[in-house]
Each structure stands twice: as structure tokens, then as C-alpha cells.
């Protein structure tokens, strides 16, 4: 059906642009006169913009109509892509990535809403399965496609390729997307949204300012304090607001509390890997952009291959043991990159990257499932939106934290081309330890044995 293809292509565009820039960062840095070790803001801006708008996506669609919002989202995404390609400075590129992220944030939630309201319940699962497949393909080909475009053309084309796809998407939206009507939009919690959005932005900018924005220590401290205060103020506000963005009643469910906190802290480490690995390969090991992109293929292929293993393990061992053990495994594999050397055999590096993809895939599946598995039907939509927001926020903050740690070690040992490898080694070790710390959060899950696995996995 054309509608499913339309929503699937939108999801593909969103996920592709989350990964395609990673292998192009050194080339972009050279073109813009920046250090490749200070380009994390290009990735952070996109993830943070998506995290900001996701909580409001449902209300926006109900208020203005899904078809109109979807058309606007594609238009904003295409315009942001063009502005990215035309950006002569890093600050303008970051601003354009924010616009791109705002458009991308609405593509999947609004598209999913249209599918939900168009297809009967017995066909919805099959329809969403079709829609999400391209979302898995985007991260699979993104790094390799980005490296190929940088070598054969220029980094500008990683954004310009969105233009023809986006224009076709706009025409398809006008022709194939139905004018579905939902319930009238209720009153929007503008005060709560402002507090939550400001808190996310301030915390992310505070982390990014440690290395990438040249802020002084006082400015970083102020941003972190105001960010934490704003997030705390939101939850106080939500406790008394009649229609908060996210009801505090959500947190009455222990598995959701633990799952959200575990997602946040585990992804701070694992979310930095797509940023750190291509930089390591190009800056310290002499790989070309295409070679670095090709080296990310084992990560994606092993990740997709490990998906069926996740539920099999959970059925037999339970969520608690799987998540505690696998979180430690993710951290150890990340820290193992501290031992990488240009002299290591190619096959060993591929095996290491494939193992990283497999354990991360298992981690994401288990974390996401345990977070939502016990929610009542009337809380499922809100819980899913909150989880999506936390995921995008953690990805952005993870890249910002990795950039800050890498910048600190680079300054400590010197930033010359031949001296960056020790800084990368120390950064991987720190991010691995940070990830391992999240195992203590998952250890707070209620013990569940093999007999409990199937019911919880469903």
C-alpha cells in the first residue's frame, strides 16, 4: 500500500541521517576549519532536537492534523538538509541540524499514528512491521554511504541526497496520506513542556560545552545546575497539573522506572560508539572515509542477527540476569577498544566490531521491552513517548560526554596526529566503565526466573 511505503521512507530518512554523518565528520571538519575531535555538536544537535519535539508530537498531530504535520515535517527535514549542505561554518551547520532534527522527530510518531488510525487492529502489527524494516536498514548503510559520498563527491552530498527523496515524499503525502481525524486535541501542557525542553537542552549543552563550544567552567556549571533544576521543577509541576505531558503515575510501575534510568545511563556509553569508532579509524589509524564506513557494517549486521537471540535468552534467564550480565558485557567490549592498535589483524578488528554490535543489539531489545512490558493499556502510549525521548536524549548526551572526555585526554597528551591514539584509548575505557555502572540499576529489577520469561517478553 502506498501509505505504508510513504511512512517507511520517512522512517528511513530519519534513521539514515542519524548515522550517515559519523564517517563524514573528519572531512567536514577539514572543510570548515575545525578539529575533527570537536565535531560532536553536529551529532548532538540532531539527537537533541528530536528528543525535544517527540513529547509534543502527538498533540501537534491532533491539533493540526497528521497529514499537514507530516507534510511540514518532510519540508522541514528537506530545508534543514539543504541548509546543512550550504553551511560555511560549524555554528550554522549545527543550527541547520537542529531544523533537520525537528522535522525528523515527527516523521515516525505521526506516520505511526496515521497507520494506527487507518488500518484495522488485526492488521496494525503487520503494517508496523513493514514500516520499521527500512528504519533498520538506515543505520546499516548510513556509515558506508556517508564514506562513499565523501570520497566520490563531497560531504555536502550526505545532506543533498535527502532533497529528491523528500520532494517525492511531499508529493506522495499530498496524494496518498488520508485526512484521518482523531480526538480533539486537549489543552497542551506548555509550562511542563518548556521546563522539560529547557532542562534537556541545558544539560546537553553543558556536557557539550566541556569540549566543543569553548564555554568556561562557570558557564558549564550554570547550564548543568539550571538544567537539573528545570527537570526537577517539571516533575513537581507534573504532580499537580491536570494534564501533564507525562503523568507521575507512570512511575508507579517499578519496571518502567528502572528501565528508563537504565536506558539513560547505559546509552550514555553505547550511544557514543557510532561517533567514536569512525573517528578512531580515520584520525588515528589512517582509514579513508569509505574504509571507515565499511568497518561499521559488521556492527549493523551482527546487531540485526542478534535480535532473535534476545527474546530466547530472556525466556530462559529472565530480564534481570540478562540485563545485568549483558550491560557488563557491553561495557567490557567498549573498554576493549582501548587495546586497539594499527598493527592488529584486520579480522580481529572486524570480530571486535561485530561483537560490539551483537551485545548492543541484545541490550537495546531487553531494555526497551522491560521498560514497557508492565504498563497498563491507557499508559502505553505515554510510556512509549517517554522512552523514545529518553533514548534520543541519551544518544545526544552520550556523544557530548564522549566528546568532552576525548577533548580532555587530547589536551592532556597533546593533539598532534600521532598522539591521538592514547586519548582514544582512555576515552573508550572511560565510556566502557560508565556503561558498566548501569548494571547496578538493572540489578534492582525484581528477580525473574526462566518460567517468567515468556509472559514478560510478550
From TrEMBL:
<keyword id="KW-1003">Cell membrane</keyword>
<feature type="transmembrane region" description="Helical">
    <location>
        <begin position="321"/>
        <end position="339"/>
    </location>
</feature>
<keyword id="KW-1133">Transmembrane helix</keyword>
<feature type="transmembrane region" description="Helical">
    <location>
        <begin position="219"/>
        <end position="237"/>
    </location>
</feature>
<dbReference type="InterPro" id="IPR020846">
    <property type="entry name" value="MFS_dom"/>
</dbReference>
<feature type="transmembrane region" description="Helical">
    <location>
        <begin position="188"/>
        <end position="207"/>
    </location>
</feature>
<feature type="transmembrane region" description="Helical">
    <location>
        <begin position="68"/>
        <end position="88"/>
    </location>
</feature>
<feature type="transmembrane region" description="Helical">
    <location>
        <begin position="293"/>
        <end position="314"/>
    </location>
</feature>
<feature type="transmembrane region" description="Helical">
    <location>
        <begin position="258"/>
        <end position="281"/>
    </location>
</feature>
<feature type="transmembrane region" description="Helical">
    <location>
        <begin position="426"/>
        <end position="446"/>
    </location>
</feature>
<dbReference type="InterPro" id="IPR036259">
    <property type="entry name" value="MFS_trans_sf"/>
</dbReference>
<feature type="transmembrane region" description="Helical">
    <location>
        <begin position="392"/>
        <end position="414"/>
    </location>
</feature>
<dbReference type="GO" id="GO:0005886">
    <property type="term" value="C:plasma membrane"/>
</dbReference>
<dbReference type="InterPro" id="IPR004638">
    <property type="entry name" value="EmrB-like"/>
</dbReference>
<keyword id="KW-0812">Transmembrane</keyword>
<keyword id="KW-0472">Membrane</keyword>
<feature type="transmembrane region" description="Helical">
    <location>
        <begin position="94"/>
        <end position="115"/>
    </location>
</feature>
<feature type="transmembrane region" description="Helical">
    <location>
        <begin position="127"/>
        <end position="149"/>
    </location>
</feature>
<dbReference type="GO" id="GO:0022857">
    <property type="term" value="F:transmembrane transporter activity"/>
</dbReference>
<dbReference type="InterPro" id="IPR011701">
    <property type="entry name" value="MFS"/>
</dbReference>
<dbReference type="Pfam" id="PF07690">
    <property type="entry name" value="MFS_1"/>
</dbReference>
<feature type="transmembrane region" description="Helical">
    <location>
        <begin position="155"/>
        <end position="176"/>
    </location>
</feature>
<protein>
    <submittedName>
        <fullName>Drug resistance transporter, EmrB/QacA subfamily</fullName>
    </submittedName>
</protein>
<keyword id="KW-0813">Transport</keyword>
<feature type="transmembrane region" description="Helical">
    <location>
        <begin position="42"/>
        <end position="61"/>
    </location>
</feature>
<feature type="domain" description="Major facilitator superfamily (MFS) profile">
    <location>
        <begin position="3"/>
        <end position="450"/>
    </location>
</feature>
Amino acid at each position: 500500500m502506498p501509505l505504508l511505503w510513504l511512512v517507511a521512507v520517512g522512517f528511513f530518512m530519519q534513521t539514515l541521517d542519524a548515522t550517515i554523518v559519523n564517517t563524514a565528520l573528519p572531512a567536514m571538519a577539514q572543510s570548515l576549519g575545525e578539529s575533527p575531535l570537536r565535531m560532536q555538536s553536529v551529532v548532538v544537535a540532531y539527537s537533541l532536537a528530536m528528543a525535544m519535539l517527540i513529547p509534543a508530537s502527538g498533540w501537534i498531530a491532533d491539533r493540526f492534523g497528521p497529514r499537514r504535520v507530516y507534510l511540514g515535517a518532510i519540508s522541514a527535514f528537506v530545508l534543514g538538509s539543504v541548509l546543512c549542505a550550504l553551511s560555511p561554518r560549524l555554528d550554522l551547520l549545527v543550527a541547520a541540524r537542529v531544523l533537520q532534527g525537528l522535522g525528523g522527530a515527527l516523521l515516525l510518531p505521526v506516520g505511526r499514528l496515521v497507520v494506527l488510525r487507518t488500518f484495522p487492529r488485526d492488521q496494525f502489527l503487520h503494517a508496523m512491521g513493514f514500516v520499521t524494516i527500512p528504519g533498520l536498514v538506515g543505520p546499516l548503510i548510513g556509515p558506508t554511504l556517508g564514506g562513499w559520498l565523501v570520497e566520490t563527491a563531497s560531504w555536502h552530498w550526505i545532506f543533498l541526497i535527502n532533497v529528491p527523496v523528500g520532494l517525492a515524499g511531499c508529493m506522495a503525502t499530498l496524494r496518498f496520506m488520508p485526512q484521518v481525524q482523531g480526538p480533539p486535541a486537549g489543552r497542551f501542557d506548555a509550562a511542563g513542556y518548556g521546563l522539560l525542553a529547557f532542562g534537556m537542552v541545558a544539560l546537553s549543552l553543558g556536557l557539550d560545552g566541556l569540549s566543543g563550544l569553548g564555554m568556561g567552567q562557570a558557564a558549564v556549571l550554570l547550564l548543568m545546575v539550571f538544567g537539573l533544576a528545570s527537570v526537577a521543577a517539571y516533575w513537581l509541576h507534573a504532580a499537580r497539573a491536570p494534564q501533564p505531558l507525562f503523568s507521575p503515575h507512570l512511575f508507579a510501575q517499578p519496571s518502567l522506572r528502572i528501565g528508563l534510568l537504565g536506558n539513560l545511563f547505559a546509552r550514555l556509553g553505547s550511544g557514543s560508539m557510532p561517533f567514536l569508532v569512525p573517528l578512531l579509524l580515520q584520525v588515528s589509524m589512517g582509514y579513508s572515509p569509505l574504509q571507515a564506513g565499511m568497518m561499521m557494517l559488521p556492527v549493523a549486521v551482527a546487531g540485526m542477527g542478534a535480535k532473535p537471540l534476545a527474546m530466547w535468552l530472556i525466556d530462559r534467564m529472565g530480564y534481570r540476569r540478562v540485563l545485568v550480565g549483558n550491560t557488563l558485557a557491553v561495557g567490557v567490549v567498549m573498554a576493549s577498544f582501548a587495546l586497539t592498535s594499527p598493527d592488529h589483524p584486520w579480522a580481529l578488528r572486524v570480530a571486535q566490531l561485530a561483537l560490539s554490535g551483537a551485545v548492543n543489539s541484545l541490550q537495546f531489545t531487553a531494555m526497551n521491552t522491560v521498560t514497557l512490558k508492565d504498563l497498563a493499556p491507557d499508559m502505553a502510549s505515554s510510556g512509549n513517548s517517554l522512552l523514545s525521548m529518553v533514548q534520543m536524549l541519551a544518544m545526544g548526551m552520550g556523544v557530548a560526554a564522549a566528546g568532552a572526555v576525548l577533548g580532555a585526554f587530547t589536551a592532556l597528551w597533546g593533539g598532534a596526529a600521532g598522539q591521538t591514539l592514547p586519548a582514544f584509548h582512555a576515552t573508550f575505557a572511560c565510556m566502557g566503565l560508565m556503561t558498566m555502572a548501569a548494571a547496578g540499576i538493572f540489578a534492582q529489577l525484581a528477580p525473574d526466573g526462566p518460567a517468567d520469561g515468556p509472559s514478560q517478553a510478550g
